[in-house]
Amino acid sequence: MHNQLAAAYGPQHWWPAQTPFEVVLGAYLTQNTAWKAVERSLENLRAAGALTLDGLRALPLDELRRLIRPSGFIVRKAPALKAFVAMLDAEFGGSLDALAAAPTSAVRRRLLALPGVGPETADAILLYALGAPVPVADEYLRRIAERHELLPVPHRSKSPSAKSPRSPSYDALADLTRRAFAADPPARHVQLFNEFHALTVAVGKAHCRRAPRCESCPLAPDLRRAQKQARSGTAAETASKSKPKTPKSRRVSLASSSSR
Q1: How far apart are CA 71 and CA 80, in angstroms?
Q2: Which is nearest to 99 in space by CA: 120, 129, 58, 124?
Q3: What's the pTM value of the predicted model, to 2 decimals?
Q4: Before 35, cis peptide (omega within 30)?
Q5: Torsion, CA 208, CA 212, CA 218, CA 224, rounded to 10
Q6: CA pair distance 147, 38, nearest whole angstrom
Q7: Which of 71, 135, 181, 204 has its CA 20 to 30 A from that of 174?
Q8: How far apart are CA 31 and CA 38, in angstroms?
Q9: How many Cα atoms occupy the beta-carbon half-sphere of 69 within 13 Å?
């Protein structure tokens, strides 16, 4: 899939930011928000001189809320950004380089302990701001994984009242990417994880939406193969169930006749 998407869309040059700290800001602000809205918030911060650690540190909380208003959820996002800066100051000397030099697993745990940081935000910061070899999963990858049957699907009950099967967990989706590139040299993992996540976003926006638009999608051939295999498996199962069974007594008679 990576190769098909790379051939279709070319290099994505992610993350769209000028500095690692701007990546961190974008990772927070893009939660539940379109990137166009994030861009407006970042422009407000840039105009206020707050796209740096020093600038954001000096910015009053009320002013920060006002500047990031286009991204929404300002009551949650503004204090969360302040909490990140406070953590960086208290534990890493206010240095993103020091944060990046710490063990990746430890940094991930510390990020997840911060308010407003879930697995996707933590991994986006690790990969795109700190250069750690960590895959990022999101809603687009979930749709691709489910529609292309890349992960086991829980058994569906035939009962109309039964709940739908759960979607793949974040960890399962991230591990799917990790295993896909396991044979590649570790030195290339940062670049591959970077590009693959960006490419899934590109195909997700163009085709794998809530209502899929599969026509001309670079991944359509794989989807057709998956659907064909599913139909073949269903047909074989149906044929097996519908095949008449020879009565036990008749089987014994045939065996006796054959032995004679």
Answers
A1: 14
A2: 129
A3: 0.84
A4: no
A5: 120
A6: 29
A7: 71
A8: 9
A9: 4
Residue count (the chain)? 260
Which of 75, 67, 38 has the alpha carbon at shortest distance from 50?
67
Tens digits of per-residue pLDDT, 140-166?
999 999 999 998 765 544 444 444 457
**What is the identity of the amino acid at 151?**
L
Q: What DSSP assignment string belongs to 67-117?
A: HTGGGS-HHHHHHHHHHHHHHHHHHHTT-HHHHHHS-HHHHHHHHHTSTT-
> Is the CB of residue 202 less than 8 Å from the CB of residue 9?
yes
For the chain, list the domains and their CATH numbers: 15-132 (1.10.340.30), 135-152+188-219 (no CATH)
In 3D, which of 218, 247, 239, 234 has the Cα closest to residue 3? Answer: 218
